Please model this.
Amino acid sequence: MLARMAQWYPWIVLLHLSCAIVFVGAVAFEVLVLEGLHAQFDAATMARIEQAVMRRARRFMPFVVALLFLSGFALFDIRCGGLQCIGTPFSYWLLLKVALAFGVLGVFVSAIVAGARGRMNPCRFRTTHRIILAMMIGIVFIAKMMFSL
Ligand code: HEM
Model:
Protein backbone atom coordinates (compact mmCIF):
# COMPACT_ATOMS: atom_id res chain seq x y z
CA MET A 1 0.00 0.00 0.00
CA LEU A 2 2.74 2.49 1.10
CA ALA A 3 4.87 1.61 -1.99
CA ARG A 4 1.90 2.11 -4.32
CA MET A 5 1.03 5.43 -2.62
CA ALA A 6 4.70 6.56 -2.85
CA GLN A 7 4.56 6.72 -6.65
CA TRP A 8 1.77 9.26 -6.32
CA TYR A 9 3.81 11.35 -3.89
CA PRO A 10 4.46 14.35 -6.18
CA TRP A 11 0.72 14.55 -6.97
CA ILE A 12 -0.21 14.33 -3.28
CA VAL A 13 2.28 17.14 -2.48
CA LEU A 14 0.74 19.19 -5.32
CA LEU A 15 -2.78 18.59 -3.94
CA HIS A 16 -1.62 19.41 -0.39
CA LEU A 17 0.11 22.61 -1.53
CA SER A 18 -2.91 23.70 -3.62
CA CYS A 19 -5.28 23.25 -0.65
CA ALA A 20 -2.80 25.10 1.61
CA ILE A 21 -2.66 28.01 -0.86
CA VAL A 22 -6.50 28.33 -0.88
CA PHE A 23 -6.84 28.01 2.93
CA VAL A 24 -3.88 30.24 3.89
CA GLY A 25 -4.79 32.67 1.08
CA ALA A 26 -8.37 33.08 2.31
CA VAL A 27 -7.24 33.79 5.88
CA ALA A 28 -4.52 36.20 4.67
CA PHE A 29 -7.18 38.05 2.61
CA GLU A 30 -9.44 38.37 5.66
CA VAL A 31 -6.62 39.72 7.86
CA LEU A 32 -4.69 41.85 5.34
CA VAL A 33 -7.59 43.20 3.20
CA LEU A 34 -10.97 42.82 4.93
CA GLU A 35 -9.76 44.15 8.30
CA GLY A 36 -8.48 47.29 6.59
CA LEU A 37 -11.99 48.10 5.36
CA HIS A 38 -13.28 48.86 8.87
CA ALA A 39 -12.05 52.46 8.52
CA GLN A 40 -14.09 52.92 5.32
CA PHE A 41 -17.45 51.34 6.26
CA ASP A 42 -19.73 51.68 9.28
CA ALA A 43 -19.94 48.77 11.74
CA ALA A 44 -23.29 47.45 10.44
CA THR A 45 -22.03 47.34 6.83
CA MET A 46 -18.77 45.66 7.89
CA ALA A 47 -20.70 43.06 9.91
CA ARG A 48 -22.80 42.30 6.80
CA ILE A 49 -19.66 42.05 4.60
CA GLU A 50 -17.93 39.71 7.08
CA GLN A 51 -21.02 37.51 7.41
CA ALA A 52 -21.29 37.31 3.61
CA VAL A 53 -17.59 36.32 3.37
CA MET A 54 -18.04 33.65 6.08
CA ARG A 55 -21.19 32.30 4.37
CA ARG A 56 -19.32 32.09 1.04
CA ALA A 57 -16.28 30.44 2.69
CA ARG A 58 -18.48 27.91 4.52
CA ARG A 59 -19.61 26.67 1.07
CA PHE A 60 -16.23 25.32 -0.05
CA MET A 61 -13.60 25.71 2.72
CA PRO A 62 -14.60 22.59 4.76
CA PHE A 63 -13.98 20.53 1.58
CA VAL A 64 -10.59 22.21 1.00
CA VAL A 65 -9.55 21.72 4.65
CA ALA A 66 -10.63 18.06 4.59
CA LEU A 67 -8.52 17.45 1.44
CA LEU A 68 -5.58 19.33 3.02
CA PHE A 69 -5.63 17.07 6.09
CA LEU A 70 -6.24 13.83 4.16
CA SER A 71 -3.35 14.59 1.78
CA GLY A 72 -1.28 15.58 4.85
CA PHE A 73 -1.89 12.17 6.48
CA ALA A 74 -0.81 10.44 3.25
CA LEU A 75 2.37 12.57 3.06
CA PHE A 76 3.11 11.88 6.71
CA ASP A 77 2.66 8.12 6.22
CA ILE A 78 4.97 8.02 3.20
CA ARG A 79 7.61 10.46 4.50
CA CYS A 80 7.72 8.92 7.95
CA GLY A 81 7.34 5.29 6.81
CA GLY A 82 4.26 5.00 9.00
CA LEU A 83 5.80 6.02 12.37
CA GLN A 84 9.34 4.78 11.69
CA CYS A 85 10.85 8.27 11.56
CA ILE A 86 9.62 9.18 15.06
CA GLY A 87 12.66 10.11 17.17
CA THR A 88 14.53 11.89 14.36
CA PRO A 89 14.89 15.73 14.37
CA PHE A 90 12.73 15.77 11.17
CA SER A 91 9.92 13.95 13.02
CA TYR A 92 9.87 16.52 15.86
CA TRP A 93 9.42 19.36 13.35
CA LEU A 94 6.81 17.38 11.44
CA LEU A 95 4.91 16.60 14.66
CA LEU A 96 5.05 20.30 15.65
CA LYS A 97 3.64 21.15 12.19
CA VAL A 98 0.83 18.60 12.64
CA ALA A 99 0.08 19.91 16.17
CA LEU A 100 -0.17 23.48 14.80
CA ALA A 101 -2.40 22.17 11.97
CA PHE A 102 -4.81 20.60 14.49
CA GLY A 103 -4.73 23.88 16.43
CA VAL A 104 -5.78 25.69 13.23
CA LEU A 105 -8.49 23.06 12.63
CA GLY A 106 -9.88 23.54 16.16
CA VAL A 107 -10.05 27.34 15.85
CA PHE A 108 -11.45 27.06 12.28
CA VAL A 109 -14.24 24.64 13.28
CA SER A 110 -15.20 26.75 16.31
CA ALA A 111 -15.39 29.85 14.05
CA ILE A 112 -17.55 28.01 11.48
CA VAL A 113 -19.92 26.80 14.23
CA ALA A 114 -20.10 30.27 15.85
CA GLY A 115 -20.82 31.82 12.43
CA ALA A 116 -23.55 29.25 11.69
CA ARG A 117 -25.14 29.98 15.10
CA GLY A 118 -24.96 33.75 14.56
CA ARG A 119 -22.50 34.16 17.44
CA MET A 120 -19.64 35.59 15.34
CA ASN A 121 -18.98 39.30 16.07
CA PRO A 122 -16.38 41.62 14.40
CA CYS A 123 -14.02 41.39 17.41
CA ARG A 124 -14.13 37.58 17.47
CA PHE A 125 -13.83 37.51 13.65
CA ARG A 126 -10.67 39.64 13.82
CA THR A 127 -9.04 37.73 16.70
CA THR A 128 -9.84 34.30 15.23
CA HIS A 129 -8.31 35.14 11.84
CA ARG A 130 -5.17 36.69 13.33
CA ILE A 131 -4.57 33.59 15.51
CA ILE A 132 -5.11 31.25 12.54
CA LEU A 133 -2.83 33.30 10.25
CA ALA A 134 -0.02 33.33 12.84
CA MET A 135 -0.26 29.54 13.22
CA MET A 136 -0.33 29.06 9.45
CA ILE A 137 2.83 31.14 9.01
CA GLY A 138 4.46 28.79 11.52
CA ILE A 139 3.18 25.73 9.59
CA VAL A 140 4.48 26.95 6.22
CA PHE A 141 7.86 27.92 7.75
CA ILE A 142 8.24 24.44 9.29
CA ALA A 143 7.01 22.73 6.10
CA LYS A 144 9.76 24.37 4.07
CA MET A 145 12.53 24.19 6.69
CA MET A 146 11.91 20.80 8.37
CA PHE A 147 14.11 18.92 5.89
CA SER A 148 17.15 21.08 6.61
CA LEU A 149 16.80 22.05 10.29
C1 HEM B 1 -3.42 23.95 8.21
C2 HEM B 1 -2.97 22.80 7.77
C3 HEM B 1 -1.75 22.61 6.90
C4 HEM B 1 -1.08 23.50 6.08
C5 HEM B 1 -1.40 24.97 5.83
C6 HEM B 1 0.02 22.77 5.46
C7 HEM B 1 0.94 23.33 4.57
C8 HEM B 1 1.98 22.64 3.99
C9 HEM B 1 2.91 23.21 3.00
C10 HEM B 1 2.84 24.64 2.44
C11 HEM B 1 3.80 22.23 2.66
C12 HEM B 1 4.98 22.34 1.67
C13 HEM B 1 4.57 21.69 0.36
C14 HEM B 1 5.72 21.81 -0.66
O1 HEM B 1 6.88 21.82 -0.30
O2 HEM B 1 5.40 21.87 -1.85
C15 HEM B 1 3.47 21.06 3.46
C16 HEM B 1 4.18 19.90 3.42
C17 HEM B 1 3.85 18.82 4.19
N1 HEM B 1 2.75 18.66 5.02
FE1 HEM B 1 1.37 20.04 5.43
N2 HEM B 1 0.00 21.47 5.89
C18 HEM B 1 -1.06 21.33 6.77
C19 HEM B 1 -1.46 20.20 7.44
C20 HEM B 1 -0.75 19.02 7.41
C21 HEM B 1 -1.11 17.83 8.17
C22 HEM B 1 -2.35 17.72 9.09
C23 HEM B 1 -0.15 16.88 7.91
C24 HEM B 1 -0.01 15.47 8.42
C25 HEM B 1 -0.83 14.83 9.18
C26 HEM B 1 0.80 17.49 6.96
C27 HEM B 1 1.93 16.83 6.47
C28 HEM B 1 2.83 17.40 5.59
C29 HEM B 1 4.06 16.72 5.11
C30 HEM B 1 4.54 15.32 5.48
C31 HEM B 1 4.70 17.61 4.24
C32 HEM B 1 6.04 17.40 3.50
C33 HEM B 1 5.77 17.12 2.07
C34 HEM B 1 7.12 17.06 1.31
O3 HEM B 1 7.62 18.11 0.94
O4 HEM B 1 7.62 15.98 1.14
N3 HEM B 1 0.41 18.78 6.68
N4 HEM B 1 2.36 21.34 4.24
